[in-house]
Known about the structure:
Blueprint: H1 10-44, H2 59-90, H3 96-125, H4 134-170, H5 175-190, H6 201-227
Helix pairs in contact: 1-2, 1-6, 2-3, 3-4, 4-5, 5-6
Amino acid sequence: MHEGPIVPDPLRARSPLRTPRAAALAGIIFSVLLMAALVLLRLSVPARSEVPGAWLTDSGRRTAVAVALNIVPFAGIAFLWFIGVIRDRIGEREDRFFATVFLGSGLLFVSMLFVGAAVAGGLIAELPSSPPGPGTLALGRDVTSILLNVYAMRMAAVFTLTTVTIARRTEIVRRWLTVAGLVSALVLLIGVGLSPWVELLFPAWILALSIDILAAGLKASSAGTGGAPRA
């Protein structure tokens, strides 16, 4: 029996080329936004201050903190997109155990990042009408710092470890990136309290991973185009 021509699904046909690019772009956006937010916060808010909230008298610092806090939601959205497209790229090779830890740690990281930003943003929002007392400012700063440094960054370390494990098993990234990921995760787990700048390791590794994914996608795309027969 003669059958009509098979029409390829355009979404299925373009998926192998579009998914790596989507993952890379989401990872790059997340990394750039989170690094910008962390740098603005670290330069504007002193880690230790004898007078809590003294930095709030500087309008420039207040503006920098406000910009950093407004960047955080967009970084979180890009990170969720990054998680989704990475899982799509792994596909049927995904291991249920590591996939659960991968997804759970990523969602917890974003949740804690949002909560810490919301606490800090709430304190700053009350300044024009009713300035909070030194005790409230100190509590808000400590809660934000603990959420970011102790909990969120350790969830980022777990996310990095599971990503490295999945990447090593499925061979979707280069070997040096898995080694760099292991080192970054161990530093975030153990030495995150040594320096506030250690937090930049996580977005820096995601940036390197995203660039590698983008390069691999572009290479596969050009190879497929070059190898296609011409009419």
